[in-house]
Input
Amino acid sequence: MRRTLVISLVFVLGIVAVLIYVGCSLRTANYTEADSGKTIEASVGQQFTITLRGNATTGYVWQMAKGTDSKVVKKISDKYTADNTGRVGSGGDHVWSYKAIAAGETTITLNYLRTWDKPVAPANTLKYKIKVQ
Output
């Protein structure tokens, strides 16, 4: 009887440990402007987001520059959501969602610019080094 109880307890604790591990690995990590210049480490299959403040009413938008290796990370979505303040000219968040699809390294470069204002340099440029294992 006691042996069966111990075996059952070990089995239940093993299942709990696996569920905690899976839950932690499925959590989507979010990065911001403060993380620019840092290395984002991800496992194959893991998703992560980059959220940047902006104000599309000024004509400036965040735009992903060319050069990200799409064999390492895949952009899933790219969405701007204005703050719900009810005030004209308020800012919002630009959110990119990515999925790590293969081991390797690449860089995600995001530029804050007016798309029609070329060849003027972007008002801001952020770079995130991505390392997928």
Strands lie at 29-31, 39-42, 47-54, 61-64, 73-82, 92-100, 104-113, 124-132.
